[in-house]
UniProtKB/TrEMBL annotation:
Catalyzes the oxidation of glucose 6-phosphate to 6-phosphogluconolactone. NADP(+) binds at R100, E142, F143, K207. The gene is zwf. SUPFAM superfamilies: Glyceraldehyde-3-phosphate dehydrogenase-like, C-terminal domain, NAD(P)-binding Rossmann-fold domains. PROSITE patterns: G6P_DEHYDROGENASE (PS00069). It comes from Streptosporangium subroseum. This is Glucose-6-phosphate 1-dehydrogenase.
Amino acid sequence: MNKENSEVKASEPINSEVKAGEPTTSAAAAAVAATTEAVAAANPLRDPRDKRIPRVAGPCVLVLFGVTGDLARKKLLPAIYDLANRGLLPPGFSLVGFARRDWKDQDFAELTHAAVKEHARTPFREEVWKQLSEGIFFCPGEFTDDGAFDALAMMLKEIDETRGTGGNYGFYLSVPPKFFPLVVQQLKRTNLADAPPGSWRRVVIEKPFGHDLKSAQELNTITSAVFPESSVFRIDHYLGKETVQNILALRFANNLFEPIWNRGYVDHVQITMAEDIGIGGRAGYFDGIGAARDVIQNHLLQLLALVGMEDPTSFGSDSLRREKEKVLKAVRLPSDLSLSTARGRYGPGWQGGDPVVGYTQEEGIQPDSITETYAAIKLEIANRRWAGVPFYLRTGKRLGRRVTEVAVVFQRAPHLPFSKDDTEILGQNALVIRVQPDEGITVRFGSKVPGTAMEVRDVSMDFAYGESFMESSPEAYERLLLDVLIGDPPLFPHQREVELSWQILDPIEEFWASQGPPEEYPAGTWGPKSADELMARDGRVWRRL
Ligand code: BG6
């Protein structure tokens, strides 16, 4: 630690306008009042009678392994600044970077500064940055280097003494999974995983949690030998998105949708995560993993669980996770995977007016790779609510545009008392949860076309976050990092959910591995023909996005 004057006074706010602190202290009471006021001022639609206590993190250190990666630069470091800027981090909050670089604190602070400037959601404020940067430290070392971890333990002790962080540490493993065992073992060896009475230790694990059921179980054995389950936070960043959490509000805070949210009214559900980007510089990670392991096993199956589950008795982690588990357990694959799955990989094509190369021409990809960049799967849920209602999941890279949505498509009206011509172009009613971009919800339904005839066609009713709430939503990582620091687990999948998701995917991966290379689709289009054929066999089409 090479910082001068790094001591923090307990009363010093990390954000000079909004004081932060533990909700239980009197400094915190002031912080809470100030935060509430600041939030209310920022959002004129907030009800001024709303006196709920904002959730503020207590004193702690976040140790980040993998500070030089893309995730840290684009998401984690900016999210930490955004939390500080919103007054949600405590005065002594400290951030320790650990990596194999010959760096000093100052170098890591500079990296963080650049990341914040480029990617933070909230405006840059010098006074917030100044205070945050006083708590930024760097510990150089390799994961195999005992000495480096001993130095880390010493550094954390010193930070506790100078910055009042009370022995509360979060360890964020933003590193390739092959290093998890090493890091976790080092945390055990140095006693950093054991929380002395009155403090906490938590470990945050980035996906992928293994690459199949077996490896996920192995990973869990390693982690659970060191940390109790209540201290393990598995990140699925989709659960941190406002629009994803809003699925619960939509379903369970209203009486409008739930009565028709079942096989009596729903024809099918389409869950789409389309990206226009290719694999970028992530060949090392992506090749051999593929689109299904990358996002279906986690993000899309979590969306399916939220859409399909029964109402939890509360939003506490036990009941929420239990309901998600129940629905994941009820998921069934159709018997013939050649008819109910499709995969593809992008070939050369066009994106945003520019020519782009195909997957096998990307840097770092072998020409004989059989990794898919597109995957579509038809699933069923064997329970009373959903029997017979297919859930279609699709994802792909280098598709027409970036869009993630959940579309609940309803059955046609049982009888149409119109002439056939009048309803010729009428589609099926649909409720579309627009996860991103253009966050909101659309309801599609039939309406009379003005005129003398009784012609009916589809129109849309729209809810847009931008219009209704007038402030940008926090980034997923802001929410999830705060939850880790507070120790609030509902938005983190339990190991059982992870294992159930692999159980669903493993037979599909096994089937695909026995096939040849995936079908090619031109970059910038909507995926392979086999995905359209999958839908056509059921007399359906993918939604046009
Ligand atoms: C990650 C995947 O989990 O999600 C990436 O590993 C993908 O391949 C990313 O690009 C997309 O996240 P978002 O939030 O932009 O939809």
